[in-house]
Amino acid sequence: MTRIILATAIVMNLLPSAYLRASDVNSGKVARPEKEAYLTVPLGFILIDASDVKLFNRLARPTDIIAAKPDTLDLLGTVTAGRKMLFIGPSHERNADGEWQAMSDEKMSLLMAQARQHGATLFGYNMENGSKGEELITRERQVGLLARAAKLTYNFGPLFVRLIFPGGEAAAREADVVVVQAQAFQKSAGFDVEKVLKVVKRLRNANPKVQVYVQISFMNRDDGTLLSANEVVTHIKMIAGEVDAVWLFYGPRTVDRFREVFAGLRQTSDATPPPSASVEPPPTPLSSPAPSSMNVTAFSRQQGGRNGTVQPVPRGIRFSSGSWVPFARLGGQIAGDASPHLSRVLDEAGATEEQRREVRSAYRAGANNAAWQTMNDIFTREQMGGIGRRKPHESSIRHALAFAVEAQTLTPHPDAAERIKAMVEEINTHLEKGGIRRRFYVTDIRTYDKTKDTGCVQPRNSGGMSLPADYESHTHDHILVAMDEGAGGANWPCPWVSSLEVHGARDESGGPKDMFTERSARILCHELGHMLGLPDFYALRIEAEDNPITHQAIPSKDYDPFGGTLMDRLGPPHPWDAEIINREATAFPVINHSWIDYQRENTVLQVLRSDGSPLSNAQVRIYRSNRNDYYQQTLDRTPKWTGTTSVDGRMSLGPLVLGTDPFQALRFFLVEVRARNRSEYIWFSFIEVNFAFWREEPITIKTTL
């Protein structure tokens, strides 16, 4: 009965107090209501991955809508409930320069045909390219013809401001459905529903046959804070009786609130049967449980557990185009959803509401690159200077670790529980010596059997075997470590679900893996470094053939910025590691990719002679690397900056030296200094750029010229 009680509690928290007291209703103190519109109004949303399909299949009403973008279109074939939609938005109509470029009729028609094969009956089009008036309607009409030719119901969703322009109501005459984006009116003072409903009425007056959906979000538009489930439900109640459907707009930061609201409303509506009362067998504890002195707490393994914890962000994806897609969503590399990273930057800049709208619109169109360019254009110098000004934590932050040891790994290690505790203490010592103010403690040690299907759909390196059932669904109040000594794949962190898998290490003779060697402890420490926001240093390199200037490989004896440190070759933490982690948010999942925030508004290079005196009037060229994939960088043939040093040996490089793409920002720079008819080449990297920000000083290089 555990699951039914949990689901009921969630639903009861979602409902307004007037409907919580059945005794009042039955006694006549409160009039018995009819079935509330907010419980029956169709709900729609755009899926992110397979976990969204599972949620929809389990709870959706027949009139609910699930939409897929072109890159997730195949998932529509796994949908077994509700109605299906193909969605095309601003990010799908961009050229290589990030400018709007209409998708060809041929490509759009092909996508529509593929969607029809997956059972789609709806087509959604979101146009945010700045077109107004007749331009907007012309494009809407053109796309509408394609949708109707494909026998798809046409849903059109321009920005709200486009609908209030003169002639904006004409959108209702060309589309079957108009989606009104109302999230801008969910503010601290409440939901300004009157403005939204005026537009709804205006659209219906223009075309009585048009259906109108209203889109709402899960964030306060004034300050970017998360709305409570009750607040979101209240907003839905205010519009449910006036619209044909409610569209739920969410992103990585708000996915958990979306799931809470969607599940709560659908379980309350009696449209689908309640969750099964069957209870998953509890995990088998190890024979040597953690002692009571460790203040062990039991974690709920129910997906959607509460108690004030942040809910999971399941992401069944690993690599795509050389970057971690789920991690990229948290860090702001994926266009479409506002990211926690962007919200933090806007807060630090003290952005106005108008500025937030403009930056978020740019972000939806072109992710970080577009958002930062817009910020650079519209923010004052003081605002740009406020970004990244985070103080390091003064004291250590403690994080809970729960361990799941695979049954076959447990056989040769019956004392695994005690060895795990010793391993964690060794990791804490390692972090303390490196100046990192984070500590881990063990709260749960159990076992699982990888040969049995646990229902975990997370892609895995465990030889095709299963990971623990809660690997991608537990709450973010702890990190789950799956230990499988017999797996042939790589160790792997999944920060977006606060879980990781480790497989131990081999000794120097190349014998079998051992989960509890000193090197194995360092591997676990390395993977925990990813959970705290650190990248792989060992992947950052330039091969000699990819350096057309000096044909020197990096790292080299002349420049090795990582020096075998923790994220490179499992050595001690790098000082950069401590600076990053000690400034990072303490809740999981980490926002990540914060290194792009630590760039001076005018980064300065200072060239010094070997005796420390400035080298003036020197000719300088600086070549910057580009990251082609995870393991390869290529140095540009053309210098990014050229100039002459001043009397104090300085040369200005301007803002955003690293760029605004966190994946690309982990760069190397080759400086060519020329003086007295001689040249010398000197390296620096993103590490020196970040330290120049933290120390508020130039990047300094020394030359023998």
Structural description of this entry:
Helix 1 (2-14) crosses helix 11 (255-268), helix 10 (229-240) crosses helix 11 and helix 17 (416-433) packs across helix 18. By secondary structure, this protein is of the alpha/beta class. 46% of the residues are buried. The protein is built from 21 helices and 26 strands.
Task: Describe how the helices and strands are arranged.
Layout: H1 2-14, H2 22-27, H3 37-40, E1 43-46, H4 50-59, E2 65-68, E3 83-88, H5 105-117, E4 122-125, H6 133-149, E5 153-156, H7 160-164, H8 171-174, E6 177-181, E7 186-187, E8 190-191, H9 193-206, E9 211-216, H10 229-240, E10 245-248, H11 255-268, E11 284-285, E12 319-320, E13 323-324, H12 325-331, H13 340-349, H14 353-378, H15 381-386, E14 397-406, H16 407-410, H17 416-433, E15 438-448, E16 479-483, E17 492-494, E18 499-502, H18 518-531, H19 566-569, H20 575-583, E19 603-609, E20 619-629, E21 632-635, E22 641-644, E23 650-654, E24 668-675, E25 678-685, H21 686-695, E26 699-703
Parallel strand pairs: 1-2, 1-10, 2-3, 3-4, 4-5, 5-6, 6-9, 9-10, 14-15, 14-16, 16-18, 19-26
Antiparallel strand pairs: 7-8, 11-15, 12-13, 17-18, 19-23, 20-21, 20-22, 20-24, 24-25
Helix pairs in contact: 1-11, 10-11, 17-18
Structure, briefly:
This protein is an alpha/beta fold. Helices cover 31% and strands 19% of the residues. The longest helix is centred in the middle third of the chain and has 26 residues, at 353-378.
Shape descriptor:
globular
CATH superfamily of the largest domain: Aldolase class I
Distance N to C terminus: 78 Å
Count of DSSP helices? 21
**How many extended strands?**
26
Q: Please list the strands of the largest sheet in the order they lie side by side.
A: 1-2-3-4-5-6-9-10
Count of spatially separate domains: 4
Mean pLDDT: 79
The CATH architecture of the largest domain is Alpha-Beta Barrel
Helicity, as a percent range: 25-40%
